[in-house]
């Protein structure tokens, strides 16, 4: 007898099942009945749908009622997982951080393209690994709030035209009667996040390892400010070191800049703007010259040095619109102007001679800022006869480059500090 394929309400089949049936047995019986009644084309269809075909199932010779909702149960569940979840994640991310920069409804069409959805979802899910830094998070929160630690640092010093704050960390071996060289650490955060308190443990360890005073300033992250405002704030922190540092036994003529990620970009860009005596910084030319003469070197950790290249990398990861980078740069048209790779090539011969040496560190497992960023900047510096050392560090990712500097028990602590100390020593020996 020919099978009759129908699509009745689900309850008709459910009523025919004994109470002892469980769901798995129900599906197995349905599939067993169907498999014996299908011709070759219908079997191919089930294979296409990825439904199992039980081996050796006898042909059923009576009318069979099929519930297609049950047959597609697994496909619907898989669809919810592989379609619903990524779209949900991406919609929330774009709603919070911004839709594509397209007119009218086109921004939603662009934002809902499958490739963008899955790439953006992957980027968001990659952030789940930050939970492994939970213990470290509570450590720095607790340490910074503990008033008993005030002997190690001076917190909340006001500086600059916008009244920003900086913290100052002393080396444990500091001689009260001797001035100490100073390291100005600029944190990262994609130009749109970050605060100085997060890096208290890093600054403390850095002061100890380098036997220097470490200054960690805040700056005007987006949307409070754009990249020019950030450069102004960092310039103001260097000016503070020059003018007020002696009150804290700081050697104002021996400054080393260290920055991570966006912070490395800002260290390089600020120095190049000061060398070029940029009027937009609002600092007298003589003071700019004095600051750059005092900067003995720059150490960049996983830095961004070509904004256009990094924008292309963000596009590949489908995060260019949720990223704050293009907004902080005031649009794509300003990417070259705010790229150290381009800025240094605009300097004339005399100004090039004033560029301090660079030490560039980058992890080979970095997927947020690819290692090519430091490699290409190193090539540009070398072509201009600027001293540069490049350290490519295997199995080190973007976050570990900075978090592993916060405690001696971190996996890459001694490896990264070994490179930093080597560069720092070269800078000091050249003074």
TrEMBL record:
Q: Indicate whether Hydrolase appears among the record's keywords.
A: yes
* Key words, A-Z: Hydrolase
Where's the BD-FAE-like domain? 166-381
Please name the SUPFAM superfamilies in this protein's record: alpha/beta-Hydrolases
The cross-references to InterPro entries, in alphabetical order and at most eight, read: AB_hydrolase_fold, BD-FAE-like_dom, GDXG_lipolytic_enzyme
Question: Superkingdom, according to UniProt?
Answer: Eukaryota
Q: Which terms does the record give in the GO molecular function aspect?
A: arylformamidase activity
Record protein name field: BD-FAE-like domain-containing protein
What organism is listed for this UniProt entry? Alosa alosa
């Amino acid at each position: 007898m020919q099978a009759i394929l129908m699509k009745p309400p689900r309850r008709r089949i459910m009523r025919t099942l004994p109470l002892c049936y469980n769901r798995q047995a129900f599906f197995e019986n349905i599939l067993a009945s169907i498999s014996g009644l299908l011709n070759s084309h219908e079997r191919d269809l089930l294979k296409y749908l990825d439904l199992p075909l039980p081996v050796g199932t006898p042909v059923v010779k009576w009318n069979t009622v099929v519930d297609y909702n049950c047959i597609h149960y697994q496909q619907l569940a898989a669809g919810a997982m592989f379609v619903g979840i990524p779209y949900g994640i991406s919609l929330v991310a774009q709603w919070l951080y911004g839709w594509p920069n397209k007119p009218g409804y086109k921004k939603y069409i662009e934002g809902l393209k499958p490739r963008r959805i899955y790439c953006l979802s992957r980027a968001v899910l990659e952030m789940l690994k930050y939970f492994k830094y939970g213990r470290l998070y509570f450590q720095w929160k607790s340490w910074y709030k503990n008033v008993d630690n005030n002997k190690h640092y001076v917190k909340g010093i006001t500086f600059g035209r916008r009244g920003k704050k900086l913290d100052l960390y002393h080396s444990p071996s500091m001689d009260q009667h001797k001035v100490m060289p100073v390291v100005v650490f600029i944190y990262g955060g994609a130009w749109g996040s970050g605060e100085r308190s997060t890096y208290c443990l890093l600054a403390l360890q850095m002061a100890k390892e380098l036997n220097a005073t470490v200054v960690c300033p805040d700056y005007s992250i987006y949307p409070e400010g754009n990249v020019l405002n950030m450069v102004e704030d960092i310039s103001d922190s260097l000016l503070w070191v020059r003018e007020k540092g002696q009150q804290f036994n700081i050697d104002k003529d021996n400054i080393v800049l260290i920055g991570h990620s966006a912070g490395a970009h800002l260290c390089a860009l600020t120095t190049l703007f000061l060398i070029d005596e940029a009027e937009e910084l609002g600092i007298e030319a003589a003071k700019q010259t004095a600051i750059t003469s005092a900067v003995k070197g720059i150490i960049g950790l996983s830095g961004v040095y070509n904004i256009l290249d990094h924008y292309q990398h963000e596009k590949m990861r489908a995060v260019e619109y949720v990223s704050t980078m293009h907004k902080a740069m005031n649009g794509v048209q300003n990417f070259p102007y705010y790229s150290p790779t381009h800025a240094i090539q605009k300097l004339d011969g005399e100004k090039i001679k004033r560029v301090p040496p660079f030490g560039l560190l980058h992890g080979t497992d970095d997927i947020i800022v690819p290692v090519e960023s430091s490699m290409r900047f190193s090539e540009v510096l070398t072509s201009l006869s600027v001293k540069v050392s490049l350290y490519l560090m295997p199995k080190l990712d973007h976050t570990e480059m900075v978090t592993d500097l916060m405690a001696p028990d971190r996996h890459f602590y001694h490896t990264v500090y070994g490179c930093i100390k080597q560069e720092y020593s070269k800078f000091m020996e050249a003074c």
